Amino acid sequence: MLEIVDLVKRYGDVVALDGATFTARRGRLVGFLGPNGAGKTTTMRAIFDLILPDRGEVRWDGRAIDLAARLRFGYMPEQRGLYPRMRVHEQLVYFAQHHGLDGRAAAGAATRWLDRLGLADRAASKLEDLSHGNQQRVQLATALVHDPELLVLDEPFSGLDPIGIATMTEVLRERAAAGVGVIFSSHQLDLVEDVCEDVVIISRGRVVAEGSIEELRARAGRRHLEVEVRGGNGSWLPDGGELTILERSGSRVKLLVDERVDLEALLARARATGEVTRFSYEPPRLSELFMEAVTQPQAGTAEQAAAAGAAR
Amino acid sequence: MSRARSVWLVARREILERGRSRGYLLSLVLTIVLLGAGFGLPVLLGGDEKTLEIGFIGDTPAALEPAIRSVATAFDEDASVEVTRYPDRASAEAALEAETIEAAVAVPADLSSPGEIVVREALDNTPRAILTQAIVGLRAGAALAPPEVVALDPRSDEDATAFVFANAGIILMFIGIFSYGYWVLGGVVEEKQSRVVEVVLATVRPRDLLMGKVFGIGILGLGQLVFLVAAGLLVSQLSGRLALPPTTAVSVVTLVVWFVLGYVLYSTALGFLGALASRMEEASNVTTPVTMVAMLSYFAAILLVTDDPDGLLARVLTFIPPSAPMVVPLRAALDAIEAWEILLAVAVMLAAIYGLFVVGGRVYSGAVLQVGARMKLRDAWRGSR
Q1: What residues of chain B lie within 8 A of the CB of A45, using their CB?
Q2: What predicted TM-score, i.e. pTM, was given to this entire model?
Q3: Which of A189, B202, B213, B325 can pair with A75 through a Cys bridge, CB separation 3.0 to 4.6 Å?
Q4: Hey, of B198, B208, B382, which one would you mutate to test binding to chain A, going by the most A CBs within 10 A of its CB?
C-alpha cells in the first residue's frame, strides 16, 4: 500500500502541496485526478525522491521509502524522455539493470516486454527513428521492464491513439490483477471512470476526494433522473429544493434529485398524469464529481482554519 | 544495488554509446592516418636514394663526418651520409669509377690546409657543394673557436628535450581536458533537454550519475590519448626520426596521472554547471568561468612557471587545484619539484575532486529537473533534494 502522508512543498510563494494525504492499495487501479497545477506531478516526484518535501512522508507497505524500495517501483514521468540515439532494446536493458536486474535477466525482460507491446521488430532501432506512439510504448516498457511492485504513471494516456489506449488499459489491468499498486494521473475523466476502481482528487495541493468511484457516487447524495410522461401536463413535478430541473423539452424532463426524494412516490405521481415511457435513474458521472470537488469553496481549509483557531 | 554498480552502469553506457559513435571511431582512424602520413610516408618514399656516399682518403679530422651530415641535412632534411674510408687516393678513385661513392675527400687531420675533393665530373654539383661547405665551415670554426663556457648549473640537452616534451604534453593535456570535459557538459545538457534524466534519477543518485558520466567519458578520452601517444611514439621510433629522452617513460606517466586528475576536476565542474542550462547555447555561457580559470592556469604555467620553476609562484600554483595539473608536470620535467610537493599536490587535488562531487552533486540535483529559464547557482543549491 502506498501512503502519502501530509506532504507539503512550497516553491517560494507558490504552494505546490499543502498537506496532501491519501493511500493507494495494491491490486487496485487508482486514478489521480486534479486540475493543472494541483500538485499531481509534485506528489509523484516526491515518491521517487526527485524533490524533497518541506514536510510529510511517503510510505510503501508501511515503511518510509528508501532507494532499495524505489528500485522496485516503475515510473513514467509526465515529461517523456529516453535517450534518442540509443537502441530500443539496449535502452530497456540499461534501465532494467539500474533497477537491479543482472545483464541476462535484463535482456530477457526487455525482449519479453518489446514482444508484449508489439515492438519486437524495432528492438535494434534507435529510439529517435520510432513514431511518437511507439516511443510512448517504449516509455511504458521502461516503467515495466523490471516487474515493479508499484507503478506510478504521469498522464500515461495522453497522446495515445485508441489502440494505444486499449493496450495501456490492458497492461495496467493485468498488472493490478497481479497485485501491483498502480496509480496514474489523467485528465480524461471518462476514461478514468471506465478503467479505475479508485480515484484521488487533488486540488490546490490538498486531497479533496478519495475512495472508490462507487463510494464517491453514493456519497454524492444526488441522482440524475430522466423522465418522459406522454400526455402528462407536468403537474406531477413537485415544487421544492430537493429536486432541480436541468432541462425540459416537451414531455421529457431531466432532473437532479436529492437522495432523500422518494422515487417510488414520484413515479406513482407521474403515472397518475399520463403514460410513463421513460424513468431512468443514474448516479452522477465522475466528471461531475470532479468538477464539484475542485470548485468547492475552500470548505476544508475554512474548517481547518477554524479548528486551528479553536485549538490555539 | 550498490552505488558503485550504478556509477559503473552509467559509465559503461557512455563508453558503449560514445565509443561506437562514428565521431569517436573516425577520430581514431584519422589519428592513425595523420601519424602515418607524418612519419611513415617520407620513409617509404625516400628510401636510400638520398644517401650521399662519400669516400674519406687517409686521416681526416674527427669532426668532418658530423659536419658533412649537418650540411647535408641543411640541403635536404631527409638526406643521410654514408662514409667509406680508403687508405690512399688510388683506391678512392677506383671506387669513384665503380660508382660505389659519389665523391672522395682528403683533408689533413689538423685542418692545416683546405685539402681536396675528388669527383667523377666537374658537374657533380651537390656533393661538391656539400663537401666544400662542410670543410670551409670546419676550418672557419677552428679559427674562430670561441672560449669555452662553464656553467655552474648546467641545463643539459636532455633537460631541454624533456622540457619540450613536457610543454607539448601540457598542450595536449589542455586540449584533452577540454575536449572530453565538453563531452560531459554536452551529455548533461542532452539528458536534461531530452528529459530522460527524470527516469534515470528515479533509480540513480544525482552524484552517482554525474560521476558515472565523468568516469565513462574519461575512460574513453584516456583511451584515445594513450592510443595517440603510443602510436606517436611507436611510429617515431620505427621511422627513427625522433630521439626520445631517457626520461620519456616518467614524463608520460606523470602526464597521464595529471591528465586524469585535471580532467576529473574540470569535467565535474563543467558537468554540474551545465545542469544550470537548458540548452547547449546557454551551457557555454554558464561555464565561461571554468574556461577562464583553465586559460589563466595554462598561461601561468607556460609563461611564469617556466621562467622560475621553483619560485614562490610556482610553489603556490602547485597546490591550487585548477592550476596543479599544468604546473606539476612542467616542474617535474624541469626537475624543479620535490617528491613531497608532488604527493601533497595529488592529495590536495583528490580532496578538491571529492568536494566538487559533493557540491556539484547537490547543485546538479537541484538544477537538472528544472526546465525553462537558465538557473542561478544559488537557486539550484537551495532547490536540491
Answers
A1: 198, 369
A2: 0.74
A3: B202
A4: B198
Q: Which residue type, as a one-letter code, is found at position B235?
A: V
How high does pLDDT run on average in chain B? 81
Q: Residue B44: its pLDDT value, please?
A: 57
A158's CB contacts (< 8 A; 6+ apart) are A186, A187, A188
Q: Which amino acid is it at B126?
A: T
Contact B193, B372 (CB under 8 A): no
By C-alpha distance, the chain A residue nearest B369 is: A50
Q: CA-based angle B205:B210:B216, to the nearest 5?
A: 120
Q: What is the DSSP secondary-structure string of A228-265?
A: EEET--STTSPPSTTEEEEEEETTEEEEEEETTS-HHH
Closest residue, chain A, to B197 (C-alpha): A81
Nearest C-alpha neighbor of A219 from the set A165, A168, A288, A268: A288
Q: What angle, 0 to 180 degrees and rounded to 10, lies between the N-to-C axes of helices A132-144 and A88-98?
A: 30
In this complex, which of B6, B198, B203 lies closest to A77 when CB atoms are compared?
A: B198
CB crowding A233-255: b at 16 or more within 10 Å, else e: eeebbeeeeebeeeeeeebebeb
**Alpha-carbon span B179 to B220, nearest angstrom:** 11
Give the model confidence (pLDDT) of A122-137 as tens digits. Answer: 999 999 999 988 999 9
Residue holding cell 650540411?
B71
* pLDDT at residue B77, rounded to an integer: 67
Paired residues of A153 in beta bridges: A76, A184
Distance CA A33, CA A186 (A): 6
Tell me how close the Cα of B188 comes to any Cα of chain A, in angstroms.
Answer: 12
| H or E segment and range at residue A184 | strand A181-185
Q: Residue B76 pLDDT more than 80?
A: no
Do you know the residue count of chain B? 385
* Digit-coded pLDDT (tens) for A60-81: 999 999 988 999 999 999 888 8
Of B53-57, B86-90, B186-190, B380-384, the one with minimum mean pLDDT is B380-384
A71·B204 Cβ contact <8 A: no
Is B371 within 8 Å of A79 when comparing Cβ atoms? Answer: yes
CA distance A88 to A82: 9
Q: By three-state DSSP, how is residue A86 classified?
A: coil
Cβ contact (<8 Å) for A94 and B9?
A: yes
- DSSP β-bridge partners for residue B238: none
The alpha-carbon radius of gyration of chain A (Å, integer) is: 24
Q: Do A51 and B198 touch (CB under 8 A)?
A: no
Measured between CA atoms, the residue of chain B closest to residue A101 is B1
Answer yes or no: do A52 and B13 touch at CB < 8 A: no
Beta-bridge partners for A58: A4
Q: Which of B2, B31, B381, B4 is nearest to B215 (CA)?
A: B4
